Structures are given as C-alpha cells and as structure tokens.
Automatic annotation (TrEMBL):
<dbReference type="InterPro" id="IPR040607">
    <property type="entry name" value="ALP_N"/>
</dbReference>
<dbReference type="Pfam" id="PF17989">
    <property type="entry name" value="ALP_N"/>
</dbReference>
<protein>
    <recommendedName>
        <fullName>Actin-like protein N-terminal domain-containing protein</fullName>
    </recommendedName>
</protein>
<dbReference type="InterPro" id="IPR043129">
    <property type="entry name" value="ATPase_NBD"/>
</dbReference>
<feature type="domain" description="Actin-like protein N-terminal">
    <location>
        <begin position="6"/>
        <end position="106"/>
    </location>
</feature>
Amino acid sequence: MRNVLQYNGKFYVCGTGRQTLVRNKTSNDNYYLLTMAAIAQEIRYRRGERKTDVVLAAGLPLASFGREKKGFWEYLFRKEQPLRFRYEDESYEIRIQDVKLFPQGYSALALHPECVRDEPSVLLADIGGWTVDLMRLDNSVPNAATCRSLELGVIRCVDEITEQVRRNIGLSVTDIQIERVMNGQSCSMDPAAKEIIVRQGRLYTEKILSAIMEAGFDLKAIPSVIMGGGASILKRHVTPQDGLCRQVYLTDVHANASGYERIVGQMCAK
C-alpha cells in the first residue's frame, strides 16, 4: 500500500513517474489527487490528527495569476466537505477551511528577503518543469509589466538529451539518470552518454540565458535570483565567461511551498 491513495472506490499510485503535461492543472483530477496524498504526508510528518481542518496554500505563475486564480481556487475548494480518503491504508477526514493562492517565485522570497535587500532591481527566474517564469522586482516590488513565461522548462531539456543520447550512441537513458548526471551526482552509465548529457546541459543553460536576454532582461546589468527545479542545472553550468551580474541560486525545490506556508502562517496569526 506504499504511496497508494484510495478515493471514491478507486486506487491511485502516487509518484511512479512524470505526470502528463497539461497547460491547465484544473483540466483533470490529477493535481487534486496528489494534493490529498500531500496532505496525508504533511499530517504524518507533523504527527497530527488524521481528522482535522486544513488551510491549503498553493501558487500560480504571476504572468497568468489573474486569469487562472478563480478557477484554480474553485478546483481546490470543492463543495465536498469533509474530504474523506485513505492513504497508505490509513483513513483521513479533512475539512478544507480555505484556499490561499500566491504568485510563484515571489512567495519564495518570503524565506529569503536578503536576496533582494538593498538591490534597486532584481530579476527572479523560476525554472520549472515546462516553463521559465520571469519577473523583475523594483525596490522589492514585482513589476507586473515585466512578467514573462518561456516554454523552456527542464522537461524540454531532458527530452532533448534523451533524443541526443539515443541518436548518437543508441542508448535509452531514463529521466532520473539524466537529472543525476546534470546535477553532478553519481550514476553508473556509459561515459559517452555522460559526456552528451553534460554538453547538452551547457547548451540548455546557454539557451535559457539567451532567451532571458531576448525577453528584455539584461543579466549582465542586474542581479538575478534563480530558483526552481532547473536552478541546480544553471548553477553547475554557468561560467565566469558568461559575465553575468550577481546570481543567487535557490536550489531547494520546496522553496515556493515553504514560502506559501510562511505567508499563510503570518496571515492566520494576525
């Protein structure tokens, strides 16, 4: 029953592979099901009661925040109350009190205000699975007119590497193998495949830096805060020869979620 969610008479195994890409998370129930599993894991980690009230905190890209906020709020805050399900053979009864939504990236800075302190302008780049979300902060305030979303996320990079390895040496490497090599971690693999992965990681970094510059952000003129799943890739492959202004890498993939929690905790305390 490990990682098994039981809901409405059906069984789901969580965490067995990459989710099929959808542009709108509300188009199917996958994200809602994963949210149940996440609630169960959080309760277990905190040794809380399995019958409890919950305030959900989640995020959306700032570029689409206004357009998607209402639909995403309704998707998470359903009429079905309390929410009953089983996770890893334990029963849960959850009453969702409220859903708070925040802009991705910017909320993570709630944990790292030092990244923007005393800087008149900072670029925030959140490198996710499918998109690279950009925004400029002027005097620590997001400049909405500068928000951009580029379809250059880590999934694009991994898919390109998979194809290059297969085309050049005939091997079918897995996504997890690729990610470990790009992050400099140990992985038993053909040296030629590793060489291709490292080379493609650098090409991916160059592509992102070029796209950011083309979007109107001069990385050589203003400091940048780089976060998300792709932050560790850029950190490993950016070189002094790129001539970038000061860079700060937030490589914790939970940075956004931790930021949402910190903000909601402050709101509830007030």
